[in-house]
Amino acid sequence: MHPRKQVSCIWSAKLAYAIGLLTTDGCLSKDGRHIDFASKDLELVKIFKNCLGLNNKIGRKTRSTEKEKKYFRVQFGDVNFYKFLIAIELSPAKSKTIKHIQVPNQYFFDFLRGCIDGDGNIRTYKHPESRFPQLRVGIFSASKKFLQWLQNKIYYSVGAKGWIRITTRCYCLEYAMGDSIDLLNKIYYKDFFSSLSRKFIFSKPYLRT
């Protein structure tokens, strides 16, 4: 009997975006079959399902010692897709060990948009020496090596340098105003298929097209 296939393993913009979400907010179980994605944003879980063509129901879950089920969750089993994720360098208990993902260059910015929607932020703040708001794009991870890989990929793709800082819970790869604008215009390219709407709406004033 052949393993059941739910998800196509052929690279596309949708698949790359979904893998970006899995890389930041997903989980591979140790059974070699099940994949789990959870988020506080119901919209994001629905987008994830749509990207992978899943029909599984969305449930609720807690994290750590919390009692309230704040997170929306979809879980599914697919041995072939699981093996594909392992082959591109995802793994169970990946949060601190992940180093890079083998994503084709043509889909890198779809993957990056997934990472930013999953565990990144797009924000503005007022610099103490300037009255104008400063834009920052940041990506969070418990793995410094993964952020260093992203930093290098982004630099060689668009020339944006960025820097890695330590936060209270993990590391953050962050970009200054000009580089952030360049990044936003790469991840929200013309006719891109989907993203977390609140982050896209926040970014729209900085887009050139």
Describe this structure in words.
This protein is α+β, with helices and mostly antiparallel strands and 209 residues long. The protein has two domains: 13-95, Endonuclease I-creI; 109-206, Homing endonucleases (Endonuclease I-creI, Roll). 37% of the residues lie in helices and 21% in strands. A four-stranded antiparallel β-sheet has the order 1-2-4-3. A four-stranded antiparallel β-sheet has the order 5-6-8-7. A hairpin with a 5-residue loop joins strand 1 and strand 2. Helix 1 (13-25) crosses helix 2. The longest helix is centred in the C-terminal third of the chain and has 15 residues, at 144-158. The protein is globular, with a radius of gyration of 17 Å. It starts with 12 loop residues before the first helix and ends in a 6-residue tail after the last helix.
Entry keywords:
four-stranded antiparallel β-sheet; 37% helix; 209 residues; single chain; Endonuclease I-creI; alpha+beta; 7 helices
Short description:
The chain has 209 residues and is an alpha+beta fold. It has helices at residues 13-25, 42-52, 79-87, 108-119, 144-158, 177-187, 197-203, and strands spanning 26-28, 34-39, 59-61, 71-77, 120-126, 133-141, 163-166, 171-175. The mean pLDDT is 93.
